[in-house]
Amino acid sequence: MQKKAGVVKTIFFILIILIIIFLIVLSLVYFFILNPAQKKPNIENPLEGISSESGEVPIEDIEIEPMFISYILNEAGAWKLHADPFNGEEAIINFEIEDGTNYYSKIDDSIETFEGISLEADLEFQTEKKEIIMAILSSDPGDYFVESIQNGETQVEITTDELELLMKGYPGFYNSLEIEED
Predict the structure, then answer these.
(1) What's the predicted TM-score (pTM) here?
(2) What would the pLDDT profile of 155-177 be if each residue is shown by its tens digit?
(3) Domain that holds residue 20
């Protein structure tokens, strides 16, 4: 009789541990992957007041700055990204512009963009200066950027593994860009 009671206690103990592990995993998925509390930051349009039709400033005279990249990424939905909850690595996206300028953005609670290329990037966009300027001048920069990807003017390369992308919230970003994962 005592052996049976010991087996029942062991099974009960294992069941409790499995329930606790399940609840912890469920909480991590909810808070870090789905990220319900995150709100889109308000990043001002760096070309506010300039119209592409007015010819006020020719596109070739506009110099790309880090804030341009932050603005486009924010409008395209990158604000949904966050650091990996297990290792703390921030989401990083490279931008290679055909004129030779390169930027990378670190994304967690904000979008910070710097000159250069990061070797730790998760995603890389290759595009033209014109596409960046036109997206910013567009009435809906996010939609313009999606169209630029869909019509091939902007290329996307995934540079990390799927688990890392999942942990940083990239599936929500893919959905907003309508990118198909390989």
Answers:
(1) 0.77
(2) 999 999 988 998 888 887 877 77
(3) 1-34
